[in-house]
Amino acid sequence: MDTITAIILGIVEGITEFIPVSSTGHMILTSKAMGFDDQTDIMKTFEIVIQLGAILAIAIVYWRRILGLLGLKRKDKTTLVGSPSKGLDLIHVILGIAPALIVAFFARDFIKSLFSANTVVWALVAGGIFMIFAEWFNKTKSKVTAHDLDDLTYKQAFLIGLYQIISVLWPGFSRSGSTISGGMLSGVSYKASADFSFLIAIPIMCAASGYELLDSYRYFNSDTIGYFAIGFFVAFVVAYLVVLAFMKLIQRIRLTHFAIYRFVLAAVFWIFILN
């Protein structure tokens, strides 16, 4: 690894982690294009580190909501925006993350065995089709009952959590793609689904990354720490900017646009990686 590699991978992670295009697919494709093995222990550790950078970005974007969920108040005793009193509470978050965490814990080795370019290609296509269907269903068949986060019901939060399992078991399907689409299939608006997807990414990715770091901490040394720090910082900055831009442009960037991009990426995989 060198500085340029750390910067490029940090940028790729920051751009793709929270939008429904599959960060896993992009990391594999970028690694192959740059001519190195992304399955080495050091590279796996690096990917965990830059994921943590992206998580920090989301935590900063949603800091008011997070403090509100914890029931914290301002000095003037008024509750923060997004406090449990306004609708969304910790139970929603728990219901949204519990199914995926349970499956990931018990199927960890099986999930790791699925990481391959072939798996990612089919996941990109299947995920794109699923997203197009979810958007169509949300517009024509579903009665939207949750227009923002505070309208979300416990049932809808749990259904989103169940849909998230697809991305856990199928690398390349996209965690945000499955949760945003799942929300739209459950009567949640596009924006509220995206908000909830980003919010529950914080605990679920912290848990997953933290667990993986227990096996990888020994790869932090004087030879790697500098590159890890660069990747972390770049992923943090890029993810922060991407999420802010995505939420501002959400009414103009539909899931179908991301689905078409996924199909193109799958074709690139097929031509340059699998053949």
Automatic annotation (TrEMBL):
InterPro entries referenced in this protein's UniProt entry, alphabetically: UppP (IPR003824)
Q: Which domain of life is it from?
A: Bacteria
Pfam families hit by this protein: BacA
Enzyme Commission identifier(s): 3.6.1.27
How does this protein sit in the membrane? Multi-pass membrane protein
Reactions it catalyzes: di-trans,octa-cis-undecaprenyl diphosphate + H2O = di-trans,octa-cis-undecaprenyl phosphate + phosphate + H(+)
Where is it located? Cell membrane
GO biological process terms, alphabetically, are: cell wall organization; peptidoglycan biosynthetic process; regulation of cell shape; response to antibiotic
Q: Which terms in the Gene Ontology molecular function aspect does this entry carry?
A: undecaprenyl-diphosphatase activity
| Record-annotated membrane-spanning stretches | 48-70, 90-107, 119-137, 157-173, 194-213, 225-246, 258-274
A GO cellular component annotation here is: plasma membrane
Question: Which keywords annotate this record?
Answer: Antibiotic resistance, Cell membrane, Cell shape, Cell wall biogenesis/degradation, Hydrolase, Membrane, Peptidoglycan synthesis, Transmembrane, Transmembrane helix
Record has Transmembrane as a keyword: yes
Q: Does the keyword Membrane apply?
A: yes
PANTHER family, alphabetically?
UNDECAPRENYL-DIPHOSPHATASE
Extra remark: Bacitracin is thought to be involved in the inhibition of peptidoglycan synthesis by sequestering undecaprenyl diphosphate, thereby reducing the pool of lipid carrier available.
- NCBIfam families reported for this sequence: PRK00281.1-4, undec_PP_bacA
Family affiliation: Belongs to the UppP family.
- Function comment: Catalyzes the dephosphorylation of undecaprenyl diphosphate (UPP). Confers resistance to bacitracin.
Q: What is the name of this protein? A: Undecaprenyl-diphosphatase
Give the organism the record lists: Paenibacillus glacialis
